[in-house]
Amino acid sequence: MPRRRLLLAAPAILVAPAVRAQGAWPSRPVRILNPYAPGGTSDIVIRYLAAGMERAFGQPFIVENRPGAGGAVGTAAAAAAAPDGHTLLITNTGPLAVSVSMTPAPNYDPQRSFSYVTLFGGAPILCAVKGDGPIRSMADYKAAAAVRRDAVTFGSSGVGSVGHLAGMLWAQEAGVELLHVPFRGAADAQQSVLGSNTVSLWDTLAAHAGGVRGGGIRGLAVTSETRVGAVPEVPTIVEAGFPGAVASNWFLLAGPAGLPAEIVERLRQHLAAAMAEPAARERWAGIGMVSLGSPTPAEIAGFVAREAARWAPVVRASATG
């Protein structure tokens, strides 16, 4: 090749790999929006997995907490992001299956605004009180609430959270009225109980299992049909005599609608392997998380739709009750 032609061709040879590299994913840090305050179950799950994602994909995976409106604020922010794989979302039952019934026109549509990636699992709700307080059982709890309307306060991770709805569901079945006190996250709700500012909390077990084991808070019941290995001493809501209050909170990873299929598949494969590791399984068991299988993105969308239909009448009853 003549020297002139070689020199003209050289820039193309050098530039092409750089152009391909710019189109690879991830080409910069990835932020994972968590629509709840630090310390909750979503935080526990995603921060544990983020370190492995960084190693696997070669870029920082930064968890960004965006609490507010029971998780709807951060969830809406993720829906509005560019679908290039550099903004992901960990969210749960509240924003996707409860808030849509509580808010006439939310800034996102669970069926159209997201590309679903992975369903991490589910966890029951815990009803708990201060460890050294006088309430020692769900029977005591019901008796305290029956003294007068709103005599018993309960904290949750926010209006529209599954903890909020589970507490209201139990109150309906028990024939009493509780006073809901919403917090920005699980840690704030637990601190309020420890400080005797609220009587109780209804929130995802995973965020409070350590508090129960440490004795700071006393678990009165978990909203599952069978006892949970993380806190085997805590009776189920069925054992306590309230089978109509069975409920669970589930957690998933998503991105904005239009996330490229190859990115979804890379994330799914990595997370499936990471969650199957013995250390991860031990961690999930320790916080009361249970597997909900390995549904495809389309199956996750169907699951979310069914859960929204299930919670809609509970939301309506809570609003009118």
Automatic annotation (TrEMBL):
Q: Which InterPro entries match?
A: BUG (IPR005064), Bug_dom1 (IPR042100)
Keywords of the record? Signal
Cleavable signal peptide: 1-21
Alphabetized Pfam families for the sequence: TctC (PF03401)
Q: Which domain of life is it from?
A: Bacteria
- Family the entry assigns: Belongs to the UPF0065 (bug) family.
Q: What is this protein called?
A: Tripartite tricarboxylate transporter substrate binding protein
What organism does this protein naturally occur in? Neoroseomonas eburnea
